[in-house]
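Weekly modeling sync, notes
Attendees: S.R. (lead), two postdocs, one rotation student

Agenda item 3: backlog of single-chain predictions. S.R. asked that every request posted to the team notebook include the full sequence so nobody has to chase files. The rotation student volunteered to paste the first one in as an example of the format we agreed on. Action items at the bottom.

Example entry:
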Amino acid sequence: MCHKEMELEDPKDLRARFRKFLNLTNERKKMSKTTIRKRIALTATTALFAGMLSIASTPVAQAHSAVGAASNTAMSVGTTAGLNAGTVGGSLFVSVIDNATTSAASAIAADSTAGCGGAITSGKSKGLLYKDSSSGIAQSATVLAGGVLSLYSCVATAVSFQVSAGSLVASGGAAAQSGWEYNSSNTKVWGSNLTAATQVGALWTAPATVGTYTVSLYTGYYTNSSGASVIATAALGATPATLAGNITVSVVAASAGGAFDATNSFCKAVRGSTANPTNNIDDSSVPANGGGYSIDFALRDAYNANLSSAGAIVVNATNGAKVALGTAGATPVAGTASSVVTTGSGTNSTVYVTQATAGAPVTTTVTISYNGTTVCTKTVSIAGAVAALTVPAANIAAQDLSASTGSGAWFAGDTRTGTFYVVATDSAGNRIATPTTLGTYGYVDGSTNTIVTDVAFASDELATSTSSTSPLSATVGTHTCSATAGKSSSVRVKFTLANGTVITSAPFTLECADDAATYTAGFDKASYVSGDVAKLTVSFKDAKGNVANNVSAASALSVISVPGMTLVSATGSATAVLKQGGKFEYTYTVGQTAGKYAAVVDFTGSSTTLATYATVQNPSYSISTGGDSTTNADVLKSIVALIASINKQIQALQKLILKR
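Predicted structure, as returned to the notebook:
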């Protein structure tokens, strides 16, 4: 085996190499510490600016005043861009005070720049036609070509106004603020870093060319190529990180404002005036006698701005109705004529409509015009005094013997208890609510007899509605019966008005009958085809053969079975009462299985009286499929008959041959 011996290194060389290693290690340590310090400093700086930036990165817009307002939109410290106090803001505002002069004024030229509280009174725009109600990054405005917008905001950070065209005026506004810089085209201006809530502003002159442009407010800091957040300047040409406000501005050659615009205007006819109408939804009910209708309207132009206060407003009403012009939402005052002529803007107005003649119903068409243009037309009705009483025959129930309460199950969709309805109307047929303050109900003396002994009206069952589709537009009456079945055909009811006028109904019939004791059942046809609709009628009579009353429940524990058909109508609850004529009616659809059937109709368990006198009914019926209904038995029967006929003919032929 061969061995290679290792040579030992000289001790001096070894010590030299070790010293070199230590020096390199120390240099790396020094470099590492220096680098760490720099990186920590950069990180801290970046975090600090990022924190400041984050404060300005969530602007919250506040409501903006409309063009022509008495004052510009106020700013508050709680809504400043980048200020860490209260709600973070970032709103961009435009001066909207009515300006009839030839120039614009900066929003901050005469206002304090030390803070953001208080009203902005000096700022004025020129040629501003429209400004929407927002102040964030999705604003819109309309201005005449060459017009000037007075812009302002409140910030506590670095700021820059920037526009897509036109120019930021170099005098007044932002130019008057120390340290502000413009680019060469005056489309951008940068401010210094602001550490306290401060008003800032600029005057923007719109281009002479019609088109759409943007006006923006940026706040916060700019991140340079090294990743550091720095203040944006004109030299850098950079834009701050946060878009705090942005307006899309339409520049037009001429104003489309000043004239009525139906899209932005509202008009509605209502019971009770409401301020500042914002829709065209009318009420449909009819005011009571002596009441009125309010036609509220708010007129605007194409820019959603108020019309001129010098406009001519003319109101006309047909059929002699009286009108008066007032302020929407205020207490109405009745007019004395059918026409009104005045001047105004129609901004928040109302026309109050009343009857032509007290106590007489009226339907009138009201027309409102502004400077000769019809802006609203409404047709309304006002009810008159009670002129007629009607008792609908379809709603009259037969009362139980020795009873006076009626039934809460008698009237469809109405839980009130009684036996008949009374409908009060004016001379035009409008239904009228009849509270006790209007008058009192009763019956005409001599219209009852020994069978129908009394008629009464409870105060909580009077008509409270004027809608013809509501059961509450009828008053419920109840008649009292003696122990004898029968009727009175000359009953009349009356309504005595507070002024003593008495309104009476035509004669009508009220009946008295005992509870159901017997019944019959039958279908509307004897035979049906599959798919037909069948009706089963069950008719009830009392023990003396009179039609049963409509106030005693008759359907409890009833059993109805109809083979081959499907029930499609409601069976009614256990407390259901008989319909008019003492009947229950049920509707079925006819099935597909042909044959002859018998139904089972059993009401004997509904009451002791029915159990004593009634018998189960089994009405029969047949069902066919509607096609060839010939059965095999029918075919066989026909064959047998044919053979018998042939045999008879053969026998006759044989007899004839034998005779020869």
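Discussion: group reviewed the output briefly. Confidence is low (pLDDT under 50) at residues 1-9, 24-59, 82-89, 109-114.
Action items: rotation student to repeat for the remaining queue; S.R. to check formatting next week.
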